[in-house]
């Protein structure tokens, strides 16, 4: 715990905790819409923004916010108009984003270490200004996802029903697209553009194994994201590992523990039910 006496580690912990709360709060809607991998696609587009920022000597994070937001809006428009499937649209994000990012980074004078920091995260490089951006945008994102929960759930569960009910479906879909872009970009330095999707999805998948209602699943996913983020920073500080990778590995470990424990509990319940209510013995057949 001595490492957390240093300001840069305190900033790293606060930034990770904010993202650990905000990412699953958004991720549960993406999982509900069967768009669990959209974070990866937007992350690749954000990489193009990072490359453009490095090439133009502008803030990579701010440029990435703009580029990722435009990319997310474009993919939502394509999906809504039905001109292509969601999977194909995501594939375009993957390939176009990574190709554009690699090309622009190659044209800039950026070092491989700086690129790696955005790809896999580098919490210890978070400045006070970066932390302020993460906290402000993270809190706005979290409040929005909680305040609009009934409407967003309706849109993600059944768009036609939500449209008949009078909800602004297109506006809410755009909001989710922009929120995804913002989440990816604020998490770049904490988790990395290649790993943020895991923090959106894995806590939700873990929570779904032990909860039933949407509200309880959301609360459990946020708690698991908070645990993974805080524990990941602590492990990284003590074991000298990459913070982003440590956070994601702990989230996956939580999923495996819950999955194994759940399977064991279900097997025990089946065994007890069989013991308490054994199958009736077949009647003896008497031949005459």
Write the layout of secondary structure elements.
Blueprint lengths: L6 H26 L5 H19 L3 H22 L4 H22 L4 H9 L7 H20 L1 H9 L1 H6 L4 H18 L9 H13 L5 H26 L3 H34 L12
Helix pairs in contact: 1-6, 1-9, 1-10, 1-11, 2-3, 2-4, 2-9, 2-10, 3-4, 3-9, 6-9, 10-11, 10-12, 11-12
Detailed description of the structure:
With 288 residues, this protein is mostly helical. Helices cover 78% and strands 0% of the residues. It has twelve helices and no strands. It is globular, with a radius of gyration of 22 Å. The model has no long low-confidence stretch (mean pLDDT 82).
What is the count of DSSP helices, taking H or I runs of 4+ residues? 12
Unreliable runs, pLDDT <50, ≥5 residues? none
Shape: globular
Strand coverage percent: under 5%
- Can you summarize the main beta sheet? none
Proportion in helices: over 70%
Report the span from N to C terminus. 84 Å
Alpha-beta content class: mainly alpha
H/E element string? Answer: HHHHHHHHHHHH
The number of distinct β-strands equals 0
Task: Quote the average pLDDT.
Answer: 82
Q: What does the radius of gyration come to?
A: 22 Å
Short description:
The protein has 288 residues and is an all-alpha fold. The protein has helices at 7-32, 38-56, 60-81, 86-107, 112-120, 128-147, 149-157, 159-164, 169-186, 196-208, 214-239, 243-276. The model has no long low-confidence stretch (mean pLDDT 82).
């Amino acid at each position: 715990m001595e490492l957390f006496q240093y300001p840069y580690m305190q900033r790293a912990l606060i930034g990770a905790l904010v993202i650990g709360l905000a990412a699953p709060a958004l991720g549960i809607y993406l999982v509900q819409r069967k768009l669990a991998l959209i974070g990866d696609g937007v992350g690749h587009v954000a990489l193009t923004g990072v490359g453009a920022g490095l090439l133009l000597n502008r803030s990579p994070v701010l440029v990435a916010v703009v580029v990722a937001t435009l990319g997310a809006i474009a993919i939502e428009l394509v999906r809504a108009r039905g001109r292509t499937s969601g999977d194909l649209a995501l594939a375009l994000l993957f390939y176009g984003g990574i190709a554009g990012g690699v090309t622009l980074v190659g044209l800039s004078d950026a070092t491989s270490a700086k690129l790696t920091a955005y790809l896999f995260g580098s919490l210890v490089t978070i400045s006070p200004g970066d932390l302020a951006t993460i906290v402000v945008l993270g809190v706005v994102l979290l409040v929005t996802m909680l305040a609009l929960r009934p409407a967003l759930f309706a849109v993600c569960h059944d768009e036609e029903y939500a449209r008949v009910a009078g909800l602004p479906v297109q506006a809410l879909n755009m909001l989710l697209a922009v929120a995804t872009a913002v989440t990816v970009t604020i998490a770049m330095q904490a988790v990395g553009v290649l790993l943020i999707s895991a923090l959106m999805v894995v806590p939700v998948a873990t929570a779904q194994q032990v909860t039933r209602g949407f509200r309880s699943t959301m609360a459990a996913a946020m708690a698991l994201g908070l645990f993974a983020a805080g524990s990941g920073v602590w492990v990284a500080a003590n074991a000298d590992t990459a913070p982003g990778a440590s956070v994601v590995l702990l989230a996956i470990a939580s999923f495996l523990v819950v999955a194994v424990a759940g399977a064991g509990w279900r097997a025990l319940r089946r065994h007890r039910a069989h013991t308490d209510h054994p199958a009736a013995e077949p009647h003896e057949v008497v031949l005459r």
